[in-house]
Amino acid sequence: MDFAPYIRDIEDFPKPGVVFKDITPLLKNPFAFQKAGDALLGLTRNMKIDKVVGVDSRGFIFAPMLAEKLGAGFVTVRKSGKLPYKTISESYDLEYGTGTLEMHSDAIEKGEKVLVHDDVLATGGTAEAVCKLVERLGGEVVQCNFLIELTFLKGADKIKNYPKAALLQY
């Protein structure tokens, strides 16, 4: 299925010069939403996955669905200060600023196979930070999954040591 018609461009968001890829048209269409979930699951064929890590906040949309279908646990990675238990953190650069991500210190067990999922791969800073968090806890990143990859921002370069898959590329 071609998911591109369900992605809307928002000019100058969140700041001037940035073209935001809005996935809400895809989410509000039940058929496209279901097919996107199925297609993302298809990107994980024949992989043993113990945990699916969803990245704050739009990574939380598909990651729990993937975890359920894979028989895996779901782990949240949140922006700084949002998790209630002991955390580890990693700072990163974004297309339009900087940030810090946190994960509970007991979220991943040593040796667990981990799928990282987010909605968009842009500059790669967020995905790289999540991979570092997973590895600091002893997990193995088996793949980074995305709904969209913005290839012109070369984010894949930051996660080149990990398998990567995306449904759409711009």
From TrEMBL:
InterPro entries: Ade_phspho_trans, PRTase-like, PRTase_dom, UPRTase/APRTase. It is found in: Cytoplasm. GO terms for molecular function: adenine phosphoribosyltransferase activity. Pathway: Purine metabolism; AMP biosynthesis via salvage pathway; AMP from adenine: step 1/1. Residues 26-148 form the Phosphoribosyltransferase domain. It catalyses: AMP + diphosphate = 5-phospho-alpha-D-ribose 1-diphosphate + adenine. Keywords: Cytoplasm, Glycosyltransferase, Purine salvage, Transferase. Its EC number is 2.4.2.7. Homodimer. PANTHER family: ADENINE PHOSPHORIBOSYLTRANSFERASE. HAMAP family: Aden_phosphoribosyltr. Belongs to the purine/pyrimidine phosphoribosyltransferase family. Catalyzes a salvage reaction resulting in the formation of AMP, that is energically less costly than de novo synthesis. This is Adenine phosphoribosyltransferase. The gene is apt.
